[in-house]
Every structure is written in structure tokens, then in C-alpha cells.
Specification:
Layout: E1 8-13, H1 21-36, E2 41-42, E3 47-48, H2 51-61, E4 68-73, H3 79-89, E5 94-98, E6 102-104, E7 107-109, H4 113-126, E8 132-135, H5 141-160, E9 164-168, H6 182-189, E10 192-196, H7 198-205, H8 210-223, E11 225-226, H9 232-248, E12 254-257, H10 262-267, H11 272-279, E13 284-287, H12 291-304, E14 309-316, E15 321-325, E16 340-343, E17 353-355, E18 362-371, E19 376-385, E20 398-402, H13 406-411, E21 417-422, H14 426-438
Parallel strand pairs: 1-2, 1-3, 1-4, 4-5, 5-8, 9-10, 9-12, 11-16, 12-13
Antiparallel strand pairs: 6-7, 14-15, 14-21, 15-20, 16-17, 18-19, 18-21, 19-20
Helix pairs in contact: 2-3, 5-12, 5-14, 7-9, 8-9, 9-11
Length: about 450
């Protein structure tokens, strides 16, 4: 499973003739400000002025599993010194951070950092390197926050390329937009998808012990109320599926279970409750074989650290309110009111039990990473989650007042499933999208 790839390399560079106490102080302050903002920095404390030393340090830094690099010209620096380092890490996102003039001992000072930033940016552009440029003094919190956003986006890209998604079954209900090109996904976005068949899970269900069942039931009852209408055999079948999926998913960062029709009809049990329970443990869970949606959920989790969910866009009103509603999968942590588990909505083509409670209110960021013939594009935005009733009296739902018009939202449709997470992460998504679109590894 993916680890914490928030580490950012910090390489300070300069010229031996210009290094001063002032430059050293500003360099240390830059690192300290980033660390205070929550960025895990890998920095050895030196300012590099020599080609070979810069190259060696950059190569060594990669062993720390860094996902991005900040080049900090502490003073004026010659291009060859920086290029020696860039050659080592050109395959990962990097940025230049240059300081302008600042107050020091009662007067305006400059170390040459800003002109170095301007020069290096020009050189990188000519060489067609994707890079970000940040300008601002070490006490400029706007600059610090922009750098943090960049590092979060870079760490998400790094983690996605090292993540595993488990897929039970595959294409569901003829949903073209849920299908995916595995080699293109692996090359351009990163996750590896490991597929298994439904029978593997069904076979594992038969091997669940009585002790495991008792523990699973206790977990569920800690989070939800099971209505009296639910038969014991239905509840047991659902809990057996939970135990089986829990064991099977141990090595994965996300899973997707094709429910229709093998589970929901042939087996007579939906995966709603098992997947909702697993979502609270840190695993990203979704269904209907829609891997682009699962990748979107995983990206949101990596960017935010929060539990993601997804829903069909069931309706978009003229007032700009979209109804996101899954069939019966909802992480219990994201619900409001009493969390009910009940028999599945009758006459709906499903058998089994489902969750029946709405999502909580609050700001949400939604995302769909849509697959094109030769790559991907990102559909995302934010809105305000409103107090919402159950859809058709049964299904979880969340009405979201969009920041964009309903017409603009509908124009962008590239599938009915949208991942979402609570909070505003549109800045991080914009940075992530830019890395995907512009980095030369694509």
C-alpha cells in the first residue's frame, strides 16, 4: 500500500563569492517556514556552489522517496550548478523559489536570489522543463501556502504511481465510461489495477469463522442501526462479504466491486454495507466497475486526507443544485442523523440490504478524472452540500449547490459518477491537473 509521500527535497544553491550570514539565515528561515506549514522537508543545511556536489546531493536525496523538489537560490547562482542537480531529478515535479528584496538591519537588501530565479526559469523554459516558479520572501505566507499546495499535488502524483486498486469483476451494466485502458492508466496516471473474479470472494465468504462474524456484527452495530425487517440470514451474508473483502483487500489502497448482477441478483446480496464499513478503515471503496471514478476518489483522498465518497449525478436543477446519490454505499462517517441499514428498495432490481441515510451538510469538492482516447481530462469544482432527504425514500443522497451554472456542469458530463470529498481542495486539484498536463513524463 502507498505510504506517506509528502516529503519534499530542498536544495539551496548559490555562488561562493556571494554567500553571507544573511543568505544563510534566509535559507534556514525558508525551510523552517515550510516545515511549520506542514511540509516534510529533506534538507542537509548546505548551500551548493559546486557542480559535482550539487549532482551528488540531488541523487542522494532521491533515496528519501521525495515526490518534489524546491530549488532555492540563496544567492546568485550559475546555471551549470543547478543543471547538475536538475539532471538527477528531472523526472519528478520541481520548482524554483526566489526571494526579492527584503528588510535587513534597517535597509533593503538582496542576495541575488530573485535574478537567479528569473534566469533559471528562462533556461528551464528553453529546455522544455515543466517547473513551477514561486516568488516571495520567506515570511510571505501566500507564497508558503502556494508551495504547500504544489507539494501536495506532487505527492499525490507520486503516490498514485505506487498505488494498487483491487477490482472484483469488471464492466458493469454496459457502462462504457466506467471501462478503462489499463496500460494508459498505468503510464499516465499511475495506479495498477489487480482484477479478480466474483467467485473468489464468494468462496472466501464460506470460510469466515463465527468469531469473525461476531466481530464484524459488533463493528456494524457501533456505526448503524439495523432495522427489524432485515433477516438474520441477510445480515450474516452481508457480514460474510465484509469479512471476505476485508481479507482480500489488505494489500490495496482502493477497491471496486462489480455488484450487478453477480452479487445483487445471483448471490442475492449487494456489497453496499461491506464497502461502507471498509471505507471507514482508510480504504477507498466504490462499485459498478467504474475505475476512473475509483481513481478520482483515490486522488481526492491523497490530496485531502479525508474519506471520499461517490454518487451518480441524478438530477441538476435550473437553480444549479445537483443531486449526488449512490445506490446504497455511503461511508458511515459521512452520514447525518441515524444511520439505518434496511432491506434494499423493492422493485429496483437488487437483492440484499443497503444503507439508508443521507450525507451530512458542508462544502464539498467533486471530481471525475475522465478517460479520453489518448489520455485524461479533469472535471472538478466545489459546492455547498445542503440538508437532503433520502432519494425515493431509500437511497443516500446529497444535494450540492454548485458554484458554476447547471448548464456548465451538464456540458462537462463524461459519465454519471462523481467522486467527492468534504472541504475545498480545488487549488490542490488545479495544481495536480497542471502537473499531469505539463510534466514532460507524459
Amino acid at each position: 500500500m502507498v505510504g506517506d509521500f509528502m516529503k519534499t527535497g530542498f536544495i539551496a544553491v548559490g555562488h561562493r563569492d556571494y554567500i553571507s550570514v544573511m543568505a544563510l539565515e534566509k535559507t534556514k528561515e525558508a525551510v523552517s517556514r515550510l516545515e511549520d506549514a506542514g511540509v516534510e522537508i529533506v534538507f542537509d543545511g548546505a548551500i551548493y556552489t559546486d557542480i559535482k556536489a550539487a549532482s551528488t546531493t540531488a541523487a542522494t536525496m532521491l533515496c528519501e522517496q521525495i515526490s518534489s523538489i524546491i530549488i532555492f537560490p540563496s544567492t546568485w547562482v550559475e546555471c551549470p550548478v543547478v543543471m547538475a542537480a536538475v539532471t538527477e531529478f528531472e523526472h519528478i515535479p520541481f520548482a524554483i523559489w526566489g526571494m526579492g528584496m527584503f528588510d535587513y538591519d534597517g535597509k533593503k537588501e538582496s542576495t541575488g536570489s530573485f535574478v537567479s530565479m528569473a534566469m533559471l526559469s528562462g533556461a528551464f523554459k528553453k529546455m522544455d522543463y515543466f517547473h513551477e516558479v514561486f516568488s516571495g520572501n520567506t515570511d510571505n505566507m501566500d507564497t508558503i501556502n502556494k508551495i504547500k499546495t504544489f507539494t501536495k499535488a506532487a505527492s499525490t502524483r507520486y503516490a498514485l504511481k505506487r498505488s494498487l486498486i483491487g477490482l472484483v469483476g469488471y464492466s458493469s451494466m454496459g457502462i462504457y465510461t466506467g471501462m478503462f485502458d489499463a496500460p494508459m492508466l498505468r503510464r499516465k496516471l499511475g495506479p495498477e489495477v489487480i482484477q479478480t473474479d466474483s467467485y473468489t470472494i464468494i468462496n472466501m465468504m464460506g470460510k469466515v469463522t463465527a468469531t469473525e462474524l461476531r466481530e464484524a456484527k459488533s463493528e456494524l452495530l457501533d456505526k448503524a442501526l439495523v432495522e427489524d425487517e432485515v433477516q438474520n440470514e441477510s445480515l450474516e451474508k452481508s457480514l460474510r462479504m465484509y469479512c471476505a473483502l476485508k481479507k482480500w483487500s489488505n494489500e490495496f489502497d482502493a477497491i471496486n466491486v462489480k455488484c450487478q448482477y453477480e452479487f445483487s441478483k445471483t448471490l442475492g446480496m449487494t456489497a453496499c454495507v461491506p464497502l461502507s464499513l471498509l471505507a471507514g478503515s482508510g480504504l477507498v471503496t466504490s462499485c459498478e466497475g467504474d475505475i476512473p471514478c475509483t481513481v478520482s476518489m483515490l486522488a481526492l483522498k491523497l490530496l485531502s486526507g479525508e474519506i471520499p465518497a461517490y454518487g451518480d449525478a441524478l438530477n441538476v436543477s435550473s437553480e444549479g443544485i445537483v443531486k449526488f446519490s449512490p445506490c446504497g454505499i455511503i461511508p458511515y462517517e459521512l452520514g447525518t442523523g441515524k444511520r439505518y441499514v434496511r432491506n434494499f428498495m423493492p422493485d429496483y432490481g437488487f437483492s440484499g440490504i443497503q444503507n439508508s441515510f443521507p450525507f451530512k451538510e458542508g462544502t464539498v469538492t467533486y471530481l471525475r478524472i475522465a478517460e479520453d482516447m489518448d489520455g485524461y481530462h479533469f472535471i472538478y469544482g466545489k459546492g455547498e452540500g445542503l440538508k437532503t432527504e433520502l432519494r425515493q425514500g431509500y437511497m443516500p443522497a446529497l444535494d450540492v449547490r454548485l458554484e458554476e451554472s447547471s448548464e456548465e456542469f451538464i456540458k462537462k458530463f463524461h459519465g454519471q459518477h462523481y467522486a467527492f470529498v468534504y472541504g475545498d481542495y480545488t487549488a490542490e486539484l488545479a495544481a495536480f491537473e497542471k502537473i499531469y498536463q505539463e510534466h514532460d513524463w507524459k
